[in-house]
Design goal:
The chain is mostly beta strands. Helices cover 9% and strands 67% of the residues. The longest helix is centred in the first third of the chain and has 15 residues, at 2-16.
Length: 212
């Protein structure tokens, strides 16, 4: 965590020295989420949990073709299991909504009618809501359940803070249109139970945006 905070501090210092004009942007798209603590037995049943993201950001040039992009992002994450076999047919889905503060370093490469961009940087997220849903049939019995996730208190289901690293790539047209792809690598343990079973987020994203 200390290294992440230092990275944030260095990024903002670089941004403060920016000489060129700041621009702003908005991105949105689809998230494909998983958790990292899946056992070998569960891997055959795990699939991507489909959600969404919306991100507002500032682009602060600090050198030719190089910018720092701080932002605020609403991120849908989680995981999903589809079971089919051994008399069980059903699914269990965990949806988590997080507010993230990313700070990415972005490099632009002129290409055609725009620029290819590559970026990476740290993020800190705060889980604000979540739900686990399940439904299925076991033998002759059919049922379903729905539980809200708790992020505080003695009986919390998940830790509040999710910090990690972002990786991004895409294409920026000269008119400001953005094509985006990204990957969020969670580095903190979301499991509140001290049993050695660590869990962190893995999120692949695709989307569109516009930079003003």
């Amino acid at each position: 965590m200390k290294k992440l905070l230092l990275s944030f501090g260095a990024a903002f210092l670089l941004a403060a020295g920016a000489q060129a004009q700041t621009s702003y942007g908005l991105k949105a798209g689809v998230n494909l989420g998983k958790f990292s603590n899946v056992t070998d037995a569960e891997k055959d049943y795990q699939t991507n949990n489909v959600s969404f993201y919306v991100t507002g950001f500032a682009d602060l040039p600090v050198a030719p073709q190089f910018s720092i992009q701080p932002g605020v992002s609403l991120q849908g994450k989680g995981n999903k299991f589809n079971y089919d076999g051994d008399g069980l047919d059903g699914s269990v889905t965990t949806n988590v909504m997080s507010i993230e503060i990313p700070v990415n370093a972005v490099y632009y490469i002129p290409a055609g009618s725009g620029n290819v961009f590559l970026g990476a940087g740290p993020y800190v997220g705060f889980n604000v809501s979540g739900k686990t849903k399940g439904k299925g049939t076991l033998g002759n019995n059919t049922g379903e359940f729905e539980n809200d996730l708790k992020f505080s208190g003695d009986n919390k289901n998940m830790n509040l803070i999710d910090a990690g690293a972002n990786f991004m790539a895409g294409y920026k047209f000269n008119n400001g249109l953005l094509l985006n792809a990204g990957y969020g690598l969670g580095l903190t343990n979301l499991n509140p139970n001290d049993n050695g079973d660590k869990s962190s987020t893995r999120t692949l994203s695709f989307g569109l945006g516009f930079q003003f």
